[in-house]
């Protein structure tokens, strides 16, 4: 038997974007046309972004801070040793939120929050 080994690493990227809302139904109806050979994978990289807002500054009538998290989770199987190395890389940017709008009155809830904080401390 003769085997031809191709040392070139193939990279295949695909983007998962919700084009339309997910409909409940059978798993076959929602199945993607995607096949992965997990025993042949060398590296899997998941990249996503999260956004968060620090609302504590609104109590003091200040603009809230907005946080943008860029996360990358890498599953590295290059050694094929039976153990997969997992690494996490994150980049965080902090900026002042713009065009924000808070509805409702915070003044009414301030006293309740102070009472709740006092109970938690006790």
Automatic annotation (TrEMBL):
<feature type="domain" description="Mucolipin extracytosolic">
    <location>
        <begin position="1"/>
        <end position="98"/>
    </location>
</feature>
<dbReference type="GO" id="GO:0005765">
    <property type="term" value="C:lysosomal membrane"/>
</dbReference>
<protein>
    <submittedName>
        <fullName>Mucolipin 3</fullName>
    </submittedName>
</protein>
<dbReference type="InterPro" id="IPR039031">
    <property type="entry name" value="Mucolipin"/>
</dbReference>
<dbReference type="InterPro" id="IPR049134">
    <property type="entry name" value="MCLN_ECD"/>
</dbReference>
<dbReference type="GO" id="GO:0005886">
    <property type="term" value="C:plasma membrane"/>
</dbReference>
<dbReference type="GO" id="GO:0072345">
    <property type="term" value="F:NAADP-sensitive calcium-release channel activity"/>
</dbReference>
<dbReference type="Pfam" id="PF21381">
    <property type="entry name" value="MCLN_ECD"/>
</dbReference>
